[in-house]
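Many introductory courses stop at the sequence. We go one step further.
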Amino acid sequence: MAFPPQFLDEVRARVSLAEVIGRRTRLVKRGREFVGLCPFHKEKTPSFHVVEDKGFYHCFGCGVHGDVISFAMQTANLTFPEAVEDLARQAGLEVPRQGREEREEAQRQATSLGAVEAACAFFEAALHGPQGREARQYLERRGLDLAAIRRFRLGYAPESRDALKRALSKDFPEALLIEAGLLRRPEGGGDSFDYFRHRVIFPIGDRKGRIIAFGGRVLGDGQPKYLNSPETPFFQKGRVLYGWAAARAAAAKEPSAIVVEGYMDVIALQRAGFATAVAPLGTALTEMQIEELWRLAPEPVLCFDGDAAGQRAAGRALERALPMLKPGHSLRFAVLPAGEDPDTLIIRQGEAAMRDVLERARPLAEILWESEAARPADTPERRAGLEQRLETRIRAIADRSVQEHYRSYVRERLFAAPRPMLRGRRGAERRFGPAPNPGVPLRTPAPFEGRPKTDLGPLRRRQQEVLMALLIHHPFLLNEMAEDLAGLQLPAPDLDKLCHEILRLHALNPDLDAATLKFHLTGSGFSRTVEGVTSPQVLSHAAFARVEADAEAVRMGWIHTRDQFQQRHLATQIAEAGRDLAEHMDEETWTRLQPLLEQKSEDEGASGGGIG
């Protein structure tokens, strides 16, 4: 009996794989997965891994691999329908009853996959026969030995127009071979012929390792150089990655994913020990492929050639991934040396050179910045244009928290970028006067002459109180504004202690809600301070800090208050340093003042921009 794919997915989602396997063997949780002794072979050291969130198990001792359905079949000696029905009962699901058409469709698909597997065996045999000599020589030149050829099931499609057709026609009808992508019928009519001819064949498997399609590399000067199977009911190239099943099994032991451009690159990397290497099938990464990569690792590394084509491929991947970014999930980009691909780099320089390339992979945020900052930004207008372009790109990110962190990242890069109006000490001297020299009378810089010792205390404290009220009423900010909090220094000692206690509690329990956070703070002796920062006097002019404020208002309120506080705090520091300079005109005091003045100049130049 066949079941609808959606029903099978529902069974897998509803039934805990770790719970089912845990009835047969003791499992111990280690990080994201469970580990135990393999129930399929005798062993003393645990090598059996269960990856609950990805729905599969794998034994690195005997190689067994599967999902909750295959486990039930193997351990309880059940047929596929029996295992599905048993698991469905456990999940409280009603088993659908299929009609004749559905049963026929399922049978046709199973038969089609059988035809594809038969074709794979035919191609393998052809490679090792007399007609496969040229293909074998090609693979030998690419550094592949017999063990590698057999491991990856490489083959050869003979030059004959109907060699495969003649070999399979006695077991499979012509219509089915056409539907499976093995034969092609001329558009103008006539006899069907083999889809692949005179090509080295790379079998393409699904996530379970079943062969569902082929890639063919032409021998000689024919075109196209690479040809994939046409799309079929069980093969859509935008959903499949070459090397998928092997990478999925390896990622169970150590989550990682490496994306390269071609079949030979995947083979070279997997042979060299980079077992999670995969490749798209001659096209840019699709959204579905990116989601599959995130099942292997939260930050897959995309490895591209350093030439113009490689940079274009990186740009296309960035555009696809940007709207999909979510907390903890992104991409990293590695660039190969000029003229090298993973295959040639490993052959010429060894595994260490490839590992070095991967370790120097850079985050998506850096690539985004560089893609826009490549143009000059040496005037106010050009800087404004850079900000606008980056803001447009950032708005494509669907997740609001990731979007805001990208804005923070961009602000930091913009502020750190050189400005034509102020370049180091020489620029500061043009605007604020020269640094003092020993023995030369120093004139106090004009901005501080006659300035009274103004106390900005009450307003500064109120801003600090609002920031603390935001954290107490809306603890989600502790995750979203982590960079802000890392550099936040509150001049008020009692509020600074409160902030440190909030950060300590959050480190112990990142999922604290507002009520629990308040409870812990009160129990830690901060009740009076908490009452003060959440009092009506503080919240009367900060509605965004109240309990009922919506998340977007909270975020914007935090950013506004933080910026205002930092500006006033900087003004206070400059005023104090200016007064000290008027009293103690020496190099040390100027050295303390100069970076404050430069920061003030940068902030004034950056205010009014489009980011944040």
